[in-house]
Amino acid sequence: MDALIALAVLAFLLWFWVDSMHAREEALRRCAILCREIDVQLLDQTVRMARLRLARDDRGRIRVRRFYVYEFSTDGVNRWHGIAILLGQRLEYLHMEHPDGPIIQDTKS
Question: Which DSSP symbol is given to 74?
Fold first, then answer.
């Protein structure tokens, strides 16, 4: 019985790790697209998880909501911050604190 519980915990941890990698890749992809669209440079070519919560999607199912932060530059010298929020694997919100004013993509319906 203990082996079965240990195996279930291990399977859950493996699933969570793979799910987190896919979510991170999606956040990075969407941040890179936005940076290209507005002609800024995504710094370090990465996003970093800042927070993790459970939330319900539109159908009432429990999903993992992940908050990622990233940095971008308008001229290669300065650093500006942004945030991407994913619910499961779906982007909910993308925000850039651009020097000309905030840029927001809100995909929640």
Answer: S
pLDDT tens digits, one per residue of 59-87 = 999 999 999 999 999 988 899 999 999 99
| SS3 category, 57 | coil
Single-letter amino acid code for the residue at 56: R
Nearest to 53 by CA among 42, 41, 62: 62
d(CA 45, CA 71) in angstroms, rounded, equals 9
d(CA 66, CA 78): 26
Sign of CA dihedral 92, 84, 32, 48: negative
Mode of pairing for the β-strands spanning 90-96 and 103-106: antiparallel
**Residues, the chain, total?**
109
